[in-house]
Design goal:
mainly beta; 254 residues; 2 helices; 2 domains; 8-stranded antiparallel beta sheet; single chain
C-alpha cells in the first residue's frame, strides 16, 4: 500500500500567498470605505408659526404684511408658514416658502430664524423671522448659506430663474438707496444693480417691490417698486457658475 503525501510548500511561496491575500483584503476594505454615502434630504410637514415684524403691530396692520408670500393673518396677528429641512432623519433648519430647483441635485429655499426678541432685563421672548436663502445639495446633504448682494430680509423677496435671483435690495452705504438686483450663484458681483429710488422711503409700503417677472428668451427681468414705474433689464449670462461638490459626507457642515 502506497501512501502519498503532499510535498511541503516552500516558505517563499507561502509567504507570497499570505501577502497576496492581505492585499486583496485591504483593497476590498478600501473599496467599501470609499463607497459614497447616500444622503436623504427632505422637507417636513408644513405648519404655521407666529411672525413678529420689526415694525409695530399698528404699522404692520397698515402695511398689510399678511399679503406677503407664505404669510397669512390669524385675527390681528401674522402667521408664517414654515417647515423643517431634514437631512438623514435629522432636522437641520427651519424654512419658509417654496423650494427652487437650480439643478437636478441642488435647490434653494429660504431659511427661517427663531430669534430672542427680549430687551435687557426681560425674560426670553422668541420670535420667528425670515432669514437668508440656503442652497441644499441633495447628493452630499451639504447646506450653504447664500450671501446675496444687498439682500434685506425684511424688504427683499427673491424670485428665482435658473441660478439667478431677482429682488429689490437695500444698499448699506452712506447714501443708501433701493436697488434692483439680479444675483447669479457663484458670481462675486450682481449681474444687475440699478438704483430705483431712495431709502428709507418717505411713506413705507408693503411690499416694497412687486415680485420680479422673468422672461426666458431673450433673458430679461422686469422689476417695479410699489407705486413706481416698471423697469426691464437684459440679463446677459454665461454658463452656470455653481460648483457642486463630490459625494463626500458633509451633511453636518451647516
Amino acid at each position: 500500500m502506497q501512501i502519498f503525501r503532499s510535498a511541503p510548500v516552500p516558505l517563499p511561496l507561502r509567504t507570497g500567498s499570505f501577502i497576496l491575500l492581505g492585499l486583496l483584503a485591504l483593497s476590498s476594505s478600501n473599496a467599501f470605505a470609499a463607497a459614497p454615502k447616500v444622503h436623504a434630504v427632505a422637507l417636513g410637514t408644513t405648519r404655521w408659526a407666529s411672525y413678529t415684524p420689526p415694525e409695530s403691530a399698528a404699522s404692520a396692520e397698515k402695511a398689510g404684511a399678511g399679503k406677503a408670500a407664505g404669510r397669512r393673518r390669524r385675527g390681528d396677528s401674522i402667521a408664517l408658514k414654515i417647515r423643517p429641512l431634514i437631512v438623514d432623519g435629522r432636522q437641520k433648519e427651519w424654512t419658509s416658502g417654496e423650494a427652487h430647483d437650480v439643478t437636478d441635485r441642488s435647490f434653494t429655499i429660504r431659511r427661517v430664524l427663531r430669534l430672542n426678541d427680549s430687551l435687557p432685563g426681560e425674560g426670553p421672548r422668541w420670535s420667528w423671522q425670515p432669514g437668508p436663502w440656503l442652497m441644499v445639495d441633495r447628493i452630499t446633504g451639504h447646506i450653504t448659506a447664500l450671501h446675496l448682494p444687498d439682500f434685506d430680509t425684511q424688504v427683499s423677496d427673491a424670485v428665482w430663474y435658473r441660478d439667478y435671483a431677482a429682488y429689490c435690495g437695500v444698499a448699506m452705504t452712506a447714501k443708501g438707496g433701493l436697488f434692483a438686483i439680479v444675483a447669479q450663484l457663484g458670481a462675486r458681483r450682481a449681474v444687475v444693480q440699478k438704483q430705483l429710488g431712495k431709502w428709507p422711503l418717505a411713506e413705507p409700503v408693503e411690499p416694497v417691490c412687486k415680485p420680479a417677472h422673468w422672461q426666458r428668451s431673450p433673458m430679461r427681468v422686469t422689476m417695479q417698486p410699489t407705486g413706481g414705474d416698471a423697469t426691464t433689464f437684459d440679463v446677459v449670462g454665461a454658463a452656470s457658475l455653481i460648483e457642486e461638490g463630490d459625494n463626500t459626507d458633509s451633511s453636518d457642515n451647516n
